[in-house]
Automatic annotation (TrEMBL):
<protein>
    <submittedName>
        <fullName>Helix-turn-helix domain-containing protein</fullName>
    </submittedName>
</protein>
<dbReference type="InterPro" id="IPR031856">
    <property type="entry name" value="YdaS_toxin-like"/>
</dbReference>
<dbReference type="GO" id="GO:0003677">
    <property type="term" value="F:DNA binding"/>
</dbReference>
<dbReference type="InterPro" id="IPR059216">
    <property type="entry name" value="LeuA_carph_isopro_dom"/>
</dbReference>
<dbReference type="Pfam" id="PF15943">
    <property type="entry name" value="YdaS_toxin"/>
</dbReference>
<dbReference type="InterPro" id="IPR010982">
    <property type="entry name" value="Lambda_DNA-bd_dom_sf"/>
</dbReference>
Length: 77
């Protein structure tokens, strides 16, 4: 799982890959290469792919990319 040096964004990518049943499974579900998904372990999920990853895994946008999609309560504050 995530260690002390893993950012929230890359930890979320790892969680999404696991939830999908692995990198190859996630890649197939959202129409990208397995290599692209593997890169997300270091970079996080690209903004343009977050919606499809969320739909494929059931993980909310704000959990996959909290830097781009804050929770509603955080926005209201």
């Amino acid at each position: 799982m995530a260690d002390a040096e893993t950012s929230p964004v890359t930890a979320a990518a790892l969680r999404a890959i696991e939830a999908a049943g692995g990198g190859a499974a996630l890649a197939k579900r959202i129409g990208v290469t397995r290599f692209a998904v593997q890169q997300w372990k270091d970079t996080g999920i690209p903004a343009g792919r977050v919606g499809k990853v969320s739909a494929a895994t059931g993980i909310p946008l704000h959990e996959l990319r909290p830097d781009l999609f804050p929770r509603a309560a955080e926005v209201a504050a």
